[in-house]
């Protein structure tokens, strides 16, 4: 059973992949949608266009994150499938050469020649493709590409991040939308940065400051664009 204690006890690398994707997705959601909301709010004196732009941004952002993740992870999955098919073929057509190759990998990792031969022979007898996939190609079951999960996770975390500024545009008074969105977004970005740093074993303050700084810059840029255009949207 995974408890918080043995989870925090596990190596950082084991827990960083999905966390990094989740934090990146949420960061993206907060930064891009709060900046969008602030940009429109800086140019608009009524709520409707701000809410409309924020909702449209959330939907568009979540879908583009999903599409981007799906395409990139699918091409990774295609590469893995092609590599495994070639490996399967090589194991069928030149098993001696493959056994030597595997032995060589274990010798390089520090085993004596005799022990490396034994390990390679036993792992080959047990599951040759799995041994080559793991030790030659670096394809580990737990890390294999899952495009749909990745796309859903990415869209979901983006939407969760984006929901924060969206809620503010619904409930804050129009005059307070800019400061409220800016303040709450920076607080959440700092929390996310701190969480990612804590779980990833990095320096807490650097992790927090880095994310909050970029968030602040993005919101400042869109606020200036919005007020620069000073377009009154009724
Ligand atoms: Zn091989």
Task: List the topology elements.
Blueprint: H1 4-9, H2 12-43, H3 47-93, H4 95-108, H5 113-137, H6 147-171, H7 177-200, H8 204-229
Helix pairs in contact: 2-3, 2-6, 2-7, 2-8, 3-4, 3-5, 3-6, 4-5, 6-7, 7-8
The structure holds zinc ion.
Task: Give short descriptive properties of this protein.
single chain; 234 residues; mainly alpha; 8 helices; binds zinc ion
Q: In total, how many domains does the architecture comprise?
A: 1
Provide a count of the helices: 8
- How much helicity do the residues have? over 70%
Q: What is the structural class?
A: mainly alpha
Describe this structure in words.
- Helix content is about 85%, strand content about 0%.
- It starts with a helix and ends in a 5-residue tail after the last helix.
- It contains 8 helices and no strands.
- It has one domain.
- The model has no long low-confidence stretch (mean pLDDT about 85).
- By secondary structure, the protein is mainly α.
- The chain has helices spanning about 5-10, 10-45, 45-95, 95-110, 115-135, 145-170, 175-200, 205-230.
- The chain is elongated, with a radius of gyration of 25 Å.
- The structure holds zinc ion.
- Zinc ion binds near residues 87, 132 and 136.
Outline of this structure?
By secondary structure, this protein is mainly α. It has one domain. The chain has eight helices and no strands.
């Amino acid at each position: 059973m995974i408890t918080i204690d043995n989870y925090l006890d596990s190596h950082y690398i084991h827990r960083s992949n999905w966390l990094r994707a989740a934090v990146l997705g949420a960061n993206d959601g907060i930064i891009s949608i709060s900046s969008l909301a602030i940009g429109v709010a800086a140019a608009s004196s009524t709520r409707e266009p701000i809410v409309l732009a924020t909702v449209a941004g959330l939907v568009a952002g979540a879908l583009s994150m999903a599409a981007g993740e799906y395409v990139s992870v699918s091409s990774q999955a295609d590469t893995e499938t092609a590599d495994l098919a070639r490996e399967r073929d090589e194991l069928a057509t030149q098993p001696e050469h493959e056994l030597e190759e595997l032995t060589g990998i274990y010798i390089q990792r520090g085993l004596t020649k005799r022990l490396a031969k034994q390990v390679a022979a036993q792992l080959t007898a047990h599951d040759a493709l799995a041994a080559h996939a793991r030790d030659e190609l670096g394809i580990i079951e737990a890390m294999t590409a899952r495009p749909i999960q990745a796309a859903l996770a990415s869209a979901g975390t983006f939407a969760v991040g984006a929901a924060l500024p969206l809620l503010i545009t619904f409930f804050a008074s129009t005059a307070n939308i800019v400061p409220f969105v800016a303040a709450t977004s920076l607080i959440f970005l700092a929390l996310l940065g701190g969480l990612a740093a804590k779980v990833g074993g990095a320096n807490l303050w650097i992790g927090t400051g880095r994310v909050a700084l970029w968030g602040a810059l993005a919101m400042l840029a869109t606020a200036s664009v919005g007020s620069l255009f000073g377009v009154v949207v009724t």
